[in-house]
Design brief:
The protein contains 30 helices and 32 strands. It is α/β, with parallel strands linked by helices.
Length: 773
Amino acid sequence: MHRKAPIEDINEDDLKVSKPKSSAAGLEAVMVSLQRGFAQAGPSRTVRSMLRVNQRGGFDCPGCAWPESITGKRKPAEFCENGAKAIAEESTARTVTPEWFEEHPISVLEQRTEYWLGSQGRITHPMIIRAGETHYTPISWGDAFATIAEHVNATTPDRCVFYTSGRTANETAFLYQLLARSIGTNNLPDCSNMCHESSGTAMNPTIGIGKGTVSLEDFDHAELIFVVGQNPGTNHPRMLSALSEARERGARVVSINPLPEAGLMGFKDPQRASGMMGKSAPISSDFLQIKVGGDLALFQAFGHLLLQAEEQNPGTVIDQAFIDSATEGFEAYRQARSEIDWAATEEATGLSREQITEIAQLLAKSKATIICWALGLTQQPHSVPTLKEIINLLLLQGNFGKPGAGACPVRGHSNVQGDRTMGIWEKPTEALLASMDAEFGITSPRAHGYDSTETLHAFEHDEVDVFVSMGGNFALANSDTEALEAGMRRAKLTVHISTKPNRSHVVHGQTSLILPTLGRTDKDDKHPKGAQFLSVEDSMSVIHSTQGRLTPVSEHLLAEPVIVARMAQAILGDDHPVDWRSMAEDYDVIRDHIARVLPGFEDFNRRVRQKNGFVLPNPPRDTRSFATSSGRGQFTVSEFESLSAPEGHLILQTMRSHDQYNTTFYGLDDRYRGIKDGRRVILIHPDDLAETGFADRDLVDVISTFAGSERRANRFRLVSYPTARGCVAAYYPEANALVHRDLVARESNTPGFKAMMVRFVPHELQPGPTLDS
């Protein structure tokens, strides 16, 4: 492998703005996919990768968790533009060698953007930086593990934190949580804490499972599909195929979002000649441009109107037989929704009574409804009540356990759901811990650990000595960036199991290790029994295998399960009851342990080798039953609430660019929104722009207000855009610095990335302290 010349860093003055597009994908998406792959990895590695991604016997895309069909044939190109970009990033021929680190001191790297850092290439050797040093230098694997063991054993388990991102495979995640609990801590924050934690917090007590209750095949039978608080065209583009096919069948697709998104307007299917020729198929039949934070009021209004429609035409709208036989709490819900304050509802949603009533009529007529949602609903103070209202609507019409119906939280990373299934959770159940203890002869801690927000607080109070990150980029992914980075720098040891450089490597602890690992596309064949494979769980609870076939960029890379096992051996010693070596050498051994510990994984090794893998049990979907405390689906009652900005402020939500996946930037082109060569932008409605006294493209500093304190992020460009009135949008992680660490979803503790109250001041007049990382 060789390292190509590094790209130039971002120059925000090069920002270009054009008219937003009204459709997604098509020939341009195909061309961009190929161009990015060829530029990063060359034609050979690119073509070999694309032929295997999401195919049986191939590797699972390292991007989103949208599933593949388990009943029909796979498409020849079973990936999207952003999946191709993710593959190009991982299979790149660019390398970050010890010589690169020698040329780049921390003082230089900390001035670079995440875009520049991630574009340098794959890390080739384990590296270390110690207190007082200015550069990372090479270290042997043995010495790296010895360093980790020294620090972990010099402190207490409660001062160690083990973070993981969603790309970690099932087998790795299982070993990782086993390591943490063998040490004696449940400090296992993960990216779910920052994304879909609100979904599980709402669903577990109401329907007995924190996962979606639909399959991909249900989209073939739905009469009505809601797509709420999400942008499939960028975040999970293959979903557009399912929505497009549903529309062709006659289903209605209702999108509810503060921003009009190209992918929800039209789809140029690149799998079809018509799409490649530029013909766009409609996606949304209806669009409600809701204000940020208005979804709770909207779903409460839908419930009121459905109950009203049932009173007018008894036996035609709600499923009373299902309610009586499978649920409880209906009477309290019915009474709570019997009245509605329409003025407050219209103010909260930005929608008219007529608009809301029209969509409620579609709900009333539908006999099979799917409600899909993503982070637009999960990152607000009242996220959990909002999601419980969705569950209420689904229970009301019996939309569980029948074709074409159910709850569909659309997950992000390709195995974020699997990580939680494997036990990556700071609040483990007693059943899991007891099963683990019996299987391995350990005593797992029972005290709950830190989630991601609690980890931020622990850093701030100097309560973290050792921080280990299995993938991810914690410094940029979480809220309150300035406080978090300062806390990470004070930790005694930070360990980053990574493929490429990122910001978390730069804001490192007093001692810091970078341990380079194999990626999803890489061959993992340095084992006594030959090449190994791993498994993942998609957004619809299907477990299937993933196996890379590319030659790694360096002989010094180790697979993630091997890294975890060797860490464990170094920390816990040879007399520990867990046989870490056997699991590192043969992943079948890991799967045999999983089969005995986790329900639903019986006969794991045989079933994962089946053509389509296997589907985990899902009582609401499989048997219309609910594993709640009472064995029934739970109607709940939540108070009316919404977001209301103080005088002179607007409500800011964060979002991804089209050239981005979480904190990884593939480029600087948000093509569908018409933003190019820049990221520090604020999308604002032209009427709100006029009221602020600023003009389009003015340069401003952004000040957020929460609980009497302020956060500031400098040098953003205002861009006139058709957002919902009173609401603005900016890219994360640049805007994460504006989120106060205590601005969270109440029950789930998820950061309030969709709930910031902000105002603007001219940049040149009040520069203030900079947060231009």
